[in-house]
Amino acid sequence: LEHSNRFWYSYKTAAGTKWYLVDADKGKKTELFDVDKMAAEITRIVKDAYDGQHLPIGGIRFTEDEKTFRFAVTSKAEEVEKPDPVTGKPKKEKKKFWFEYDLATGKLTELKDHEPEKAVPHWAAVSPDRKYAVYAKNFNLYCMDWENLQKAAENDKDSTIVERQLTTDG
Fold it and tell me: Rounded to two decimals, what is the model's pTM?
């Protein structure tokens, strides 16, 4: 986390995924949230049945104050109609629900009017300030700025994308 000596991670086993928060200054690791309570709350809002062992939580991002984090859950059943980015014609896709979780109170809130951040390609590691991305290509490391990363997310064959090769020895 950007403003402290804390970090979070998830760990998946046969028993499911658990999310943890580590405070390096205190030498303490705690569960980020109770998975069973989270599953019950998500089930209540999304109307799809979830259990603590199979939570579909994706894209956790802490807020600036590091007291809450946001994430998305995609519905299994509910669909919405959105324009196709290429053709502009309407197409159906699974509805995405956005949530904010308060670490102190354990309260989960649905963010009904949430505008998600622009998607980051799965192959890129983005800096915390979202100015740069680093990635591997042809066994070497490359970087590009946020603007070029957004172009690559839209069309990775765009000839105007500027990237900088960091290594040459594979």
Answer: 0.67
